[in-house]
Amino acid sequence: MRLQNWSYGSNGKHFITICTCENEHFFGKIANEKMYLNTIGELADKYWYEIPNHFPYVHLDQFTVMPITFMSLLNLMTLMVDAVGKIMTEIA
Question: Domain range for residue 17?
Answer without folding.
Answer: 12-91
